[in-house]
Specification:
This protein is of the alpha/beta class and 414 residues long. It has five domains: 128 residues, N Utilization Substance Protein A, Chain:P, domain 4; 66 residues, Beta Barrel (OB fold (Dihydrolipoamide Acetyltransferase, E2P)); 71 residues, K homology (KH) domain (GMP Synthetase, Chain A, domain 3); 65 residues, 2-Layer Sandwich (GMP Synthetase, Chain A, domain 3), CATH 3.30.300.20; 67 residues. The protein has 15 helices and 15 strands. It starts with a helix and ends with a helix.
């Protein structure tokens, strides 16, 4: 048992960094319980553990008496004489006896082993819990060692970390043995061992990646004011420079985009929009909705809402695929944003389109009618307006409205 104990002790000290004195105290406590179980609660004893050799010495102290009443606390003088230890000892003195482990019997020794193993497991759980609790929000690097029903188990410093399905980047597929990075999101005290949950989809993971890639963020020169993410698809991050000489967006993107590209690659090609933060809600919302171009914004500060007006041809950029761009902008700014399309006036249209491009939509008869009335381009027709078009005898009001609608839609698509 001493050999087993020595090995366990050395392993706990070496691998887990447990304080020697603390561990020795646990061992002495366990064997103290052993003594009490055999000799009673009032027994006087001393347990000495040699931390280097892993040896345990147990000493029982009893009073020397003429007539023994309680053998757990007393020892007869005759017995002391028989053991040849009567020199300089007399009745009333204390007799210290070194006990052998074997004298406790198999049952108590087994109890001691089980108790010790249980305490060591509890101690290891506490150490692991504290270690990862201190790492909350920090990035850890481990190896994928098991894929279990969509969940990923990661080995980190011989500890098992859990990357649940919901904390993964949806478009990623992990492979056994590959290295993976994630942040420690949650540490729970499980029944057998701590449950350490890590995440690659949490916005804090993106924040930590920027801290690693952008020294100005790590040094506190640039602040991250907000992050909104759709993991694996798109993210927006608002940054602000404490030093007016440093461009926050430029520093985060890096020369030729090298910094943000490294982060995009880590996140499986997740698009990242880096925007300058502003305390002015109108400016902040406008930047958050990039790359869409806004004509004007009405903001209600009390309701934390905004109405955004833009040309119809900007709808796709502002809203984004499946509404992701506008939803991320709302998440980033904290404002409810409603988008209203505005049709371009004829005066705002710059690039003209040959009328022949609309021949199919207008129909051959309508197309030839406009050409014969000296209209060669779509813009010429729109600038003529409804009133002039109605002067063409072959056209009625319904047909004119239809012509104008077709041509305007063509410019919006452009």
């Amino acid at each position: 048992m001493s050999i087993e104990l020595s090995e366990s002790f050395s392993q706990m000290v070496r691998e887990k960094g447990v304080d020697k004195d603390h561990l020795a105290g646990i061992i002495e406590e366990i064997f103290g319980i052993l003594v009490k179980k055999k000799y009673g609660e009032e027994a006087k004893y001393n347990v000495v553990f040699n931390t280097d050799k892993g040896e345990i010495e147990i000493f029982l102290t009893r009073e020397i008496v003429e007539q023994v009443v309680d053998p757990n606390l007393e020892i007869a003088f005759e017995e002391v004489e028989r053991m040849g230890n009567e020199d300089e000892l007399e009745v009333g003195d204390e007799y210290v006896e070194k006990l052998k482990l074997i004298s406790f019997g198999r049952r108590l020794i087994t109890f001691a082993k089980q108790s010790l193993n249980q305490r060591l497991r509890e101690l290891e759980k506490e150490i692991i819990y504290k270690e990862y609790n201190d790492l909350l929000g920090e990035i850890v690097i481990g190896d994928v060692y098991q894929l279990n029903r969509g969940h990923i188990l990661v080995n980190h410093n011989k500890n098992e970390l859990l990357l649940p399905r919901e904390e993964q980047i949806p478009s990623e597929k992990a492979k056994k043995g590959e290295t993976i990075r994630a942040i420690v999101k949650e540490v729970r005290k499980g029944k057998t061992r701590p449950e350490i949950v890590i995440s690659r989809s949490d916005p804090k993971f993106l924040q930590k990646l920027f801290e690693i890639e952008v020294p100005e963020i790590y040094d506190g020169i640039i602040d991250i004011k907000g992050i909104a993410r759709r993991p694996g698809e798109r993210a927006k991050i608002a940054v602000f420079s404490q030093d007016k000489r440093i461009d926050a967006v430029g520093a985060c993107v890096g020369m030729k985009g090298v910094r943000v590209t490294a982060i995009v690659r880590e996140l499986n090609n997740e698009n990242i929009d880096v925007v300058n933060y502003s305390e002015d809600p109108k400016i902040y919302i406008q930047r958050a909705l990039a790359p869409g171009k806004i004509k004007r914004i009405d903001v209600d500060l009390k309701k934390k809402s905004a109405v955004v007006y833009a040309d119809s041809d900007q709808a796709a950029s502002i809203v984004g695929r499946n509404g992701v761009n506008i939803h991320l902008a709302m998440e980033l700014t904290g404002y409810q944003i409603d988008f209203i399309r505005e049709e371009k006036t004829v005066e705002e249209i710059e690039d003209d389109i040959e009328l022949i491009e609309f021949r199919e939509e207008l129909g051959q008869e309508m197309y030839e009618l406009l050409i014969n009335n000296m209209f060669d381009t779509a813009l010429e027709v729109l600038r003529a307006g409804k009133e002039k078009l109605l002067k063409i005898e072959e056209l009625n009001e319904e047909q004119v409205d239809r012509i104008i609608e077709i041509l305007k839609e063509g410019f919006e698509e452009e």
